[in-house]
Specification:
This protein is 82% helix and 0% strand. With 125 residues, it is mainly alpha-helical.
């Protein structure tokens, strides 16, 4: 019963995100709105991690399974994508480098902020 409630919570947030996307005057993905809503619910404390733990663990453990339809779709339309292969590879290379750089800089910033926070606590004592 617990897993059904967790699935209901996640699907409810997804449905709310899709509903908000339909109401917006500009096209915006409902899935992105749903992720932001879920983040805000977790951040505000209205939704606690244990409320969705089993469902989220299942999704994370089986994430590769959800990429199979996309991979099959790419293989089915390989001939149509062939003329765009070089630009696609270039985009993948550039975005991979940018993602690595952004992740590295974010980690450095978080470490710096944690060290600054711990030093300020030591000075207070």
């Amino acid at each position: 019963m617990k897993i059904i409630v967790q699935i209901g919570l996640v699907l409810g947030v997804c449905l709310l995100g899709e509903g908000i996307a339909l109401l917006l005057p500009i096209p915006f993905p409902g899935s992105v709105i749903a992720m932001v809503l879920l983040f805000l619910l977790l951040l505000s404390g209205l939704l606690r991690p244990h409320h969705i733990r089993e469902k989220s663990n299942f999704l994370l453990q089986n994430m590769a399974f959800f990429f199979i339809p996309a991979g099959v779709g790419i293989m089915e339309h390989a001939q149509a994508l062939l003329p765009f292969l070089l630009p696609l590879l270039l985009i993948c290379l550039i975005t991979t480098i940018l993602t690595f750089a952004a992740s590295g800089l974010t980690v450095r910033l978080v470490i710096y902020l944690q060290e600054k926070h711990s030093q300020s606590k030591k000075e207070e004592v």
